[in-house]
Amino acid sequence: MLPASASALVLSRFELIKDYCRALTNKPCFAYTGSKSLIYAQSIMTNELRLPAPNDRILEEARLKVALARQYLESLKEFGLTADWLNELEAACDRAEVLPTYEIQTGELKSLTAAKEAALDACVQWGRKLRYRLQLAFAETPSTGMQFPANDWRAAERNESRMISLFPSLLQLARQHGTVLATAGQTEAAIAEGETLLAALKAANETQEQYKYSRTTATNQRRRAFQGLYEGILRINQTGQMVFGRDSAEGNLFRSNWPARRRTTEDPTDEEE
Predict the structure, then answer these.
(1) Are the C-beta atoms of 63 and 90 separated by less than 8 Å?
(2) Whether the Cβ atoms of residue 26 and residue 221 lie closer than 8 Å to each other
(3) Do 128 and 4 fall into the same domain?
(4) What is residue 6's predicted lDDT score, i.e. its pLDDT?
(5) pLDDT the model gives residue 248
(6) Alpha carbon 47 to chain centroid distance?
(7) Could you report the per-residue pLDDT of 170-208, keeping only the tens digit for each?
(8) Are residue 112 and residue 161 in the same domain, yes or no?
């Protein structure tokens, strides 16, 4: 077992190496936990860092750190920070700022879902009218009226894909028995309405599915964008502390006071699709 003084020295040297690696690579070098005098280290050079704050706070901090780094640019150049690098980080801030937020995407998806459900409900109402007209028209010949696909219908009432699959057969029934169903109030306009309702449901379903796909793409783009901003913040902070010292007045400027960790709904990993 290492004596306490030796353990403290190892920890001190480890911190120095860790900070130096961070300044050069823009990523943490090691994470460790200490158990008495032993150090357990493991690499966490991963492709993605957990963001410590909501996106709007990350964006604000990135802009502040760009401004700070420009004030001390001559000193920070020792570790590769340049005016061009800062300009690119600022441009990345501008690009990230105009990306659609999780809240906006969620609202748009809810609107599309509501439109699809309304289209499904319209098809349901049309199908129920057809079923009732079949019952009226074929009251004396129940077997003919039973051509209505009651078993499949129950599932289709709650599922747009099944309704889209089943509805053409309902239209076929309406056309096949058009003359008899006319005695129960069916018209050519009613059949045309059914065709229109089916087309509307298909369009609403396709639009929602396409948006789900584009939403996933946009979510990944947004995550990459704000990961890049956070990594830029880390590099500026770590470089500033390496140049000026962690406990100096200037070094303290190169810190980020993130809010206490809390569970948020921003960009959850298990988004409802």
Answers:
(1) yes
(2) no
(3) no
(4) 40
(5) 93
(6) 18
(7) 999 999 999 999 999 999 999 999 999 999 999 999 999
(8) yes
Which two structure tokens, joined as six digits, stand for 24?
A: 């050069």
State the pLDDT at residue 226.
Answer: 96
Any domain includes 273 = no
Query: Is residue 64 domain-shared with residue 14, that is, in the same domain?
Result: no
CB neighbourhood size of 207 (10 A): 13
Tell me: do 139 and 190 sit in the same domain: yes
Total number of domains in the chain: 2
pTM above 0.85, yes or no: no
Task: Compute the distance between CA of residue 64 and CA of residue 212 in angstroms, rounded to an integer.
Answer: 34
Are 132 and 214 spatial neighbours (Cβ–Cβ below 8 Å)? no
Which residues span the domain enclosing 17?
1-46
Q: Is the pLDDT of residue 242 over 80?
A: yes
Q: Which residues 6+ apart lie within 8 Å of 132 measured at CB?
A: 184
